[in-house]
Automatic annotation (TrEMBL):
InterPro entries: FAD-bd_FR_type, FNR_nucleotide-bd, Riboflavin_synthase-like_b-brl, SIP_FAD-bd, SIP_fam, SIP_rossman_dom. Pfam families: FAD_binding_9, SIP. Residues 1-106 form the FAD-binding FR-type domain. It comes from Corynebacterium mendelii. One of its GO terms (molecular function) is oxidoreductase activity. This is Siderophore-interacting protein. SUPFAM superfamilies: Riboflavin synthase domain-like.
Length: 239
């Protein structure tokens, strides 16, 4: 995991108040050398066709007083954004679109379940830092191995469990999440994010075991194995 701080005059007025809201980082098209950018029209962005080459990332920290925000990059492999993060230097410029706004989770649930892989880790880390003292729940994080674990905020109401997939497709995240001991009769919110195929099976657990309504869940496939620029809201699927 590599953290990059964005700042300067271009970040003045940037806002981020929700733990899992994201921005789109816009890159020059590696095949054509063309940089395609959206246009601001009122309070919305109009995107050109074909769409710009972009990757979506979560805001890890936001410091409005200094006009700065941080993004954590997973740099395994040769992805476009990860490669940029590894090679950028102070003063480099990058176009950032968003965040588009988001949905603020109620802080009145009795129990929270948050789970995901490294791509969901920035959101989970921010959630723990910003959670009210009286909130309770569990966090499950899937990483390749123990060396990929990082320090997280020590919240008295939350347990944190690290599971290892050894760099391969695995059911370890779903197996651990479905074994969660949820207090009987508790109102529950479930937040899941990570590789789409790894978290998609958990929809059945949410629907049939927990019997939660759509407003009580957020399930997002941040990426798909073998695909790029994926951001799939799996809680909108049927099943």
């Amino acid at each position: 995991m590599l953290r990059i701080t964005f700042g300067g005059e271009g970040a003045r007025g940037f806002e981020s108040g929700i733990f899992d809201e994201h921005v789109k980082l816009i890159f020059t098209d590696p095949s054509t050398g063309e940089l395609r950018l959206p246009q601001q029209v009122g309070d919305k962005l109009e995107w050109p066709t074909p769409k710009p080459v972009g990757r979506e990332y979560t805001i890890r920290k936001h410091r409005p007083e200094s006009h700065e925000f941080d993004i954590d990059f997973v740099v395994h492999g040769e992805g476009l954004a990860g490669s940029w993060a590894e090679n950028c230097t102070i003063g480099d410029r990058l176009h950032v679109a968003g965040p588009p706004g988001g949905w603020e989770i109620s802080r009145d649930y009795d129990f929270y379940v948050l789970a995901g892989d490294e791509t969901g880790l920035p959101s989970m880390a921010r959630f723990l830092e910003e959670a009210d003292p009286g909130m309770k729940g569990t966090v499950v994080v899937e990483v390749p191995d123990k060396h990929s674990e990082i320090d997280l905020a020590d919240h008295p109401g939350f347990t944190v469990t690290w599971v290892h997939n050894h760099g391969k497709a695995s059911t370890v995240l779903a197996d651990t999440v479905t074994a969660t001991d949820i207090p009987h009769g508790a109102s529950v919110f479930v937040w899941l994010a990570g590789e789409a195929a790894a978290i998609k099976p958990l929809r059945g657990w949410i629907k049939h075991d927990l019997q939660l309504q759509r407003g009580d869940i957020s399930v997002t496939g941040y990426w798909k194995r073998g695909a790029e620029d994926t951001h799939e809201h799996l809680d909108r699927d049927e099943g």
